[in-house]
Amino acid sequence: MMIEIDFNSDEALYMQLRNQIILGIATSQFHEGDVLPSVRALAETVGINMHTVNKAYTVLRQDGFVKVDRRKGAVIAVDMDRAREEDRIEKELRVILASALCRGLSRSDLHRMIDRICDAYDKEEA
Amino acid sequence: MMIEIDFNSDEALYMQLRNQIILGIATSQFHEGDVLPSVRALAETVGINMHTVNKAYTVLRQDGFVKVDRRKGAVIAVDMDRAREEDRIEKELRVILASALCRGLSRSDLHRMIDRICDAYDKEEA
DNA sequence: CCCGCTGTTATAGACTTTGTATAACAGAGG
DNA sequence: CCTCTGTTATACAAAGTCTATAACAGCGGG
To answer: With a CB-CB cutoff of 8 Å, which residues 13-42 of chain A face chain B?
Structure first.
């Protein structure tokens, strides 16, 4: 999977990495058990420091998306804690939904948007 | 409207302020034309610095939620630029939806979640 | 057995962001 | 005139981000 960094983004580099890998898992470009590039290799190819990649992997581990094996490296291993996740998701959604509603987006607009994003994931997956 | 700050949150104080005010607009606790507390007053009641409140108001202005009148203060004035907003919303949704799907939440789970949040807003509004 | 790979840790420096603190300014209004 | 409004400037401390070098332990292949 191609991982790209936008150095002009105001989003932290390690968060860009984290998010792209989560997107990769959602679109089945990464599967359970897949091994991510080593921190040094990914740092090299992307053009950033090793520690920045390491921080991304550490966050991914804390968030339950990978398990880190000292010899193999970072392995995709999604922790399925639905209840806890549902709370987190809903909390994050509240603000962004609020701002959408303020702009005049309707509830059905949001549903359509959800479907469009999910469709894009399903398509990429195939 | 009651505005509260969580000093233990890892979210920046000015962003907490910003988000709560957006939530307030979405739930009609703030209406078009309403005047927000002055930067000094809000800073006093919340227990933070004036400049932190000012930054929140500045961000709200940049994001098109308030207009600032030098004599009256910050006034709720939502900028209805749907097209631009739709892009921003969708971009923000992509990552959080991806992480939800990774955890095993289904598309209909997400739809239900959207409805639940919107229902809560409608209810608060009434 | 050593070499090379893995993540991990430590230390240090530069830079940005965040939040606070004081102070002063112009504009508007009672 | 006094007081309220946002705005601006300056300074400072603390935290976060990113880089750079270096070293360590564990494991596996030649």
So the answer is: 19, 22-23, 25-27
B85 Cβ partners below 8 Å, 6+ apart?
A99, A100, A103, A105
Q: Which domains does chain B show, CATH number per domain? A: 13-76 (1.10.10.10), 82-125 (no CATH)
Contact B118 A97 (CB under 8 A): yes
Burial call A24-48: b when 16+ CB within 10 Å, e when fewer: bbbbeebeeeeebbbbeebbeebeb
Q: Can you read off the two tokens belonging to residue B22? A: 């957006």
Q: Which residues contact B30 (CB under 8 A, 6 or more apart)?
A: B1, B21, B24, B36, B76
A3-51 residue pLDDT tens:
999 999 999 999 999 999 999 999 999 999 999 999 999 999 999 999 9
Print the SS3 string covering A81-124.
CHHHHHHHHHHHHHHHHHHHHHCCCCHHHHHHHHHHHHHHHHHH
Beta carbon of A74 within 7 Å of strand C? yes
Closest CA–CA distance from residue B96 to any residue of chain A (Å): 7
- For D4, nearest residue by CA–C1' is B71
pTM: 0.92
Q: For chain B, give the mean pLDDT.
A: 94
